[in-house]
Amino acid sequence: MQPRQRRSVGGFSRVIDVDTRLIGLIFGLAVIWIGFNIASDGTFLSARNLWNLSVQSASIAIMATGMVLIIVSRNIDLSVGALLGFTGYTMAMAQTQWIPQGLGLGLDHPLTWVITLAFGLVLGAILGGIQGFVIAYGGVPSFIVTLGGLLVWRGLIFQYAQGQTIAPLDPTFRLLGGGPQGSLGEFGSWALGALACVAIVIGLLYNRRRRASYGFPVRPIWALVLLGAVAITVVLGGVWVANSYPWPGALAAQFAERNNIPIPPGGLVIPTGIAYPVLIMIAVTIVMTHLAERRRFGRNVYAIGGNPVAAVLSGINTRRTVMLTFAVMGILAAVSGAVQTARLNAAVTGLGVQNELDVISAAVIGGTSFSGGIGTIPGAILGAVVMQSLRSGMVLMRVDSPMQDIVVGIVLVAAVGLDALLRRRTT
Prior knowledge:
There is one protein chain. The relative contact order is 0.19. The chain has helices at 3-16, 20-39, 47-72, 80-102, 112-138, 142-161, 171-174, 185-213, 221-244, 249-258, 276-294, 296-306, 308-313, 318-344, 355-365, 377-396, 401-426. The chain has two domains: 22-32 and 42-183 and 275-426, ABC transporter involved in vitamin B12 uptake, BtuC, CATH 1.10.3470; 184-274, no CATH class. The two termini are 20 Å apart. The protein is mostly helical and 427 residues long.
């Protein structure tokens, strides 16, 4: 690319106020999707595969939002996969054994899933906070602490029930994992899409007015319209794809029989809509983005990653901030543990194995720098989608698991190398 072309691309990204890396990641994702779709004869971009891709990406994306803050603060968490498995297994034990024995509530009781989920989130916060405390106040490197956590949490899973599979789970809790019944359905999905479009327009206008009130540069009207149109198109397109994936025929027939619904000659078509794990991922993304960009805690994390010494001198309680960062990561690992356990309708000892690699890869591919101080939540979400797209596409191409790991490893190294190159050129 010629220097003038690079300046034009950079100038365009500055005008529309969007990170250049984010634009590049979107184009890269488009290339991956188009390439796999051609290679799979149109299967990859089918409504069924895209729906499954969204559900499969949700768990990794949820944890990747927390990993951004961990890496931004110049730390690392290798225990997220084991913590996911441990909290998921604990929640399964709670609803199948501890709550029925201690409180006398069965699996079909309306409070069982609520108590289970609350217990899992609190447990995740405590375990993550313990690791953060050792790192921040004990002075032990995060690599060592979380590596030890990986071994401890994974080993404790086997201490529960000697590695036995815990199943089945509470019916309401299972809805957190998605599936035909764990989704919004057609009307709910379109209603949510409409609300999202309204929120996009209001958000863009509010952001422009707020920046103007402080005398900051604002986007031109054409850039504002372009961003709004693209965002609304993506939202409505996603809802359309989700509603294009129908319930399986046998399940739709059972639903019709239970509700005395006549089945038409071509079969009953029930749109699935947006899955609950995707809704959870969206909610987590909104909360974490607000936390990282609008709250003092997020600004402190970025300040610590940018210059730890200056952060201390400016009065930031760096130890407490780092500890809380790991506590947030523990909560998000527990959320992902609930989603994955609910999706399987069982707790297994292999739950979350190697998820830490996918989570770290998603954050780094999304633009988070190991040097600290740089990273975005939306970038991590896109990174998670890229990671899962690679795995999903290779599964469709019948690539074996070892080769998938090789490809993912190459992509991770390339992403880190590109980040290092860009930082050197910027300097």
